[in-house]
Amino acid sequence: MQSQTLKPILVTAIPAFTDNYFWAITSSNLNTDNGNTLKHVALVDPGDAGPCIKYLEESNLQLCAILITHHHADHTGGIAELKRYCQSKNWQINVYAPENKKIAHVDVRVKDKQIIEITALDMSFEVIDLAGHTLDHVGYYSNDAVFCGDTLFSGGCGRIFEGTPEQMLTALTRLTDLPDRTQVYCAHEYTLANLTFALAVEPNNAELVHYYNQVIERREKNISTIPTSISLEKKINPFLRCDQQEIIDSAAGFSGGKANNTLATFTTIRQWINNF
Ligand SMILES: [Zn+2]
Asked: Is the peptide bond before 165 cis (omega within 30 degrees of 0)?
């Protein structure tokens, strides 16, 4: 994986709808002392323009890029209005999205391994193909942070709407191949429900029990559990642990048969959580 940016990035959540997070990315060391120049920001998956415009105005930020992970409306619904808003301000903006006719108002179509440069932020991202939840799904990786839409969640993974279990497992592996320290910015606060399922699948995982108790406390105070990290997810997320004996046995118990490889175990627990 190439990450050409070494500067720390700042990422802010814009909560929206019931449980979505739109992500706002700024570069931490751009000079903002010039009173006439607004600091630039990129938005990931702005499904609704309203909360984004409110955030831009309250934070005094100039939108310069939109990164889209996949075509679902709760990730793309704000694009058109945000572009109009930028035009009204005379701001240059590029919308990056994977190839799919269902996503309109796109300036740059992206594909696997492409490096996109956002000059206003002095930042670059590598595109990662994450087909599985949808066939067009991509992630954006930069500087120890990955924006992975509806692919990897804390304690879980996205529903498989268009791809196959094999594609989803491959997508998750692309993410777990990133460095352990990578911060994972997924698009939904699903953690508590995911962990309830994870505990049914792997009740003797002490790290999972510990994390579940932490998450309960955080959610009681309405504190976000995102970002998570690749290292934490490898320890607690059953969809990344389908080689573990306890999970293999739980999957076999659910399906009434033997899951004889990682993909079969993954497929079984992905079906199981749909009905959990
Ligand atoms: Zn989706």
From this structure: no
Amino acid (1-letter code) at residue 186: C
DSSP per-residue codes, 10-51: EEEEEEETTTEEEEEEEETTS---STT-PEEEEEE--S-HHH
Q: How far away, in angstroms, is 18 Cα from ligand 1 center?
A: 14
Query: Whole-model pTM?
Result: 0.95
CA distances (Å), origin 100, targets 20, 29, 252: 22, 35, 38
- Cα 187 to middle of ligand 1, angstroms: 9
What separation in Å is there between the alpha carbon of 31 and the centre of ligand 1? 36
Structure tokens at 148: 């992975």
208 burial type by CB count under 10 A (0-12 exposed, 13-18 middle, 19+ buried): buried
* Residues in contact with 176: Cβ distance below 8 Å, sequence separation at least 6, in sequence order: 230, 233, 234, 240
Q: What digits encode the pLDDT tens for the residues 76-117? A: 999 999 999 999 999 999 999 999 999 999 999 999 999 999
> Residues 156-182: pLDDT tens digits?
999 999 999 999 999 999 999 999 999
Give 48 Cα–ligand 1 centroid separation in angstroms. Answer: 14
